[in-house]
Amino acid sequence: MIRAHEAEAVRAAEAPLLASTATDELMTQAAFAVATEVLRELRRLGARRSGSTVLLLVGGGNNGGDALYAGGYLARRGLQVVAALCTDRPHERGLAAARSAGVRVRPVLDDDGRPRGEELAVLADRAGVWVDGLTGIGARGGLREPLAGIVTALADQRALMPDEPTVVAVDVPSGIGVDDGTVPGPVLRADVTVTMGAAKPGLLVQPAEALAGRVVVVDIGLAPHLGEPALRRLTPADVADLLPAPVATDHKYTRGVLGLVAGSTTYPGAAVLAAAGALRTGLGMVRYLGPDAVARMIHARFPEVVVGSGRVQAWALGSGIDPDDDARADDVRDALRRALDDGVPAVLDAGALALAPERLAPTTVLTPHAGELARLLIARGEETGRAAVEAAPLELARRAAALTGAVVLLKGPTTVVAAPGGATLSQADGTPWLATAGTGDVLAGVLGALLAVRGEDLAGGQDPEGLLTAELAAAAALVHGRAGARASDGGPVTALQVADAVPGVVAALLADR
Predict the structure, then answer these.
(1) HEC secondary structure over 1-14
(2) Known binder of ligand: residue 139?
(3) pLDDT at position 248
(4) Disulfide: which of 45, 107, 256, 267 matches 85 by Cβ 3.0-4.6 Å?
(5) Which whole-number Å values give the CA distances from 35 to 32, 84, 212, 221, 453, in the listed order?
(6) pLDDT the model gives residue 10
(7) Does the annotation flag 367 for ligand binding?
């Protein structure tokens, strides 16, 4: 499991280590990790170490010190290293160490604190790797001048260079929202981010995640001092632990039964896709409630689906249903009422989102995309819109969970899952090819199946803060994302192909357990 901690927690965890260790020991440890990643990138690019040029973008504070110490390591290994001082207060000991190792130091601010743009551009043009040590986790809000202008100019220059330099960020790409993943101003997009002590939430959620590149977490001994994470990301091993494999004494009822209210005469395929996602995930039975024409369509593809009501361990509601379709809206409301009265978990997708009451159980999962989450929040008195959700998905998913009392699975390039009790997870396991019609219906089925299989652990108020429910929602996102990547194999994919790939993903997860 990847655990991300907010800046304040990391800085508090560093304090006792800084007080008990030798001068700059943590900094030199971090710098060695940065230097190692620079060398790894050079090897990947096929560049010779000796003669390769590295540009250090040095700001004030510890991140600038990390960059300077890293530059010293690289210079001693035969690289040409230039430190562009973008501050008038560089880390003194780091600067001295860099100079003694042969790093060439170039101040790039004039006497008035403004950047010498032409000089910086020449230095940047000559370097194959840029090390971003401009700001660290202590920065708040967007970059201020002169750093904002420096980053903007470098980003523009990089985009025009025929051989785009690799950027290695120290701790975080300068300018991102460290705790919330927002991008309040210019950011120099990183290819690799070497983050110290623990991942930061901003590296694991959009839009900042897209600017972080490959994230490398360096263990500097903070774990015993960090406390509970602000954000988690499940690994395949975590998901395998959440998926109970059948045993010899199981039968279809002990494996979980999912009630499915999905599809309509206008959108019948949504019910087929949700059923496909559920069946492929490995539950005992799917019960379908809906129009006869849709039921016949499901039966033509999946004759094992049972039509009609009966006892279930979870519900999946709303895929392919227009909330203005009174008959189908009533079906959703009736099923949701039963779920809430019986203490049974439920997935509310698509049309069911607009039919949800103000407050829900923590074992209910809402699965909106950005536009649907904006409408859900507006209906509850929040002033927002789709663009606002896309700019701050972590904040607004958490807000929606608090307002509704349900777990919120916000779909997007990175899935954010927020529980009403405060637990938050993010998953980025899929492929952009999943952005196609019907894949959300498959996800609703996969999630419904996982809730049904673990129904006994969720029933009757056993998950009061929504923690297990949120973990199962994140697990569904991982299974669905990996199925999409497997089915796509780098090319276009259809929703049914994603569903068909789910059993292979589940089998691989369980085999590695």
Answers:
(1) CEEECCHHHHHHHH
(2) yes
(3) 87
(4) 107
(5) 5, 17, 17, 19, 47
(6) 93
(7) no
Q: Residue 318: left (phi > 0), alpha (psi -120 to 50), or beta?
A: left
**How much is the mean pLDDT over the chain?**
94
- Listing DSSP states for 192-223 in one string gives EEEEESSB-GGGSSTTGGGGT-EEEEE--S-H
- In 135-256, beta strands by DSSP E: 166-170, 192-196, 214-218, 231-233
- Residue 331 phi/psi, 5° resolution? -60, -40
Structure tokens, 332: 């959703």
78 annotated to a ligand binding site: no
Does 136 belong to an annotated binding site?
Answer: yes
- Supply the pTM of this predicted model: 0.94
Q: Any idea what the Cα angle at residue 447 is, between residues 372 and 354, rounded to 5°?
A: 25
pLDDT of residue 250: 84
Quote the CA–CA distance of 5 and 224 in Å, as a whole number. 13
Read off the amino acid at residue 490. Answer: G
Question: Is 460 marked as a binding-site residue?
Answer: no
Neighbours of 112 (CB within 10 A): 6
Least Cα distance to 133 among 200, 203, 190, 177 occurs for 190
171 marked as binding residue:
yes
Q: Where are the alpha helices (DSSP H) in 59-112?
A: 61-76, 92-100
Tallying the residues shown for the chain, one arrives at 513
Query: What is the reported pLDDT for 458?
Result: 95
3 state SS of 309: coil
Cα atoms in the 13 Å half-sphere on the side-chain side of 47: 21
Residue 195 known to bind ligand: no
Amino acid at 39: L
Among candidates 281, 265, 262, which has minimal Cα distance to 498?
Answer: 281
Q: Tell me which residues of the chain have a pLDDT lower than 70.
A: 20-23, 48-51
Residue 270 annotated as binding site: yes
Report whether 369 belongs to an annotated binding site.
yes
Question: Does the annotation place 219 within a ligand binding site?
Answer: no
64 is known to lie in a ligand binding site: yes
Chain mean position to CA 344: 28
Residues 6+ apart with CB under 8 A from 249: none
| 140 has binding-site annotation | yes
Distance CA 368, CA 386 (A): 11
Q: Which residues pair with 286 in a beta bridge?
A: 258
User: Is there a binding annotation on residue 371?
Assistant: no
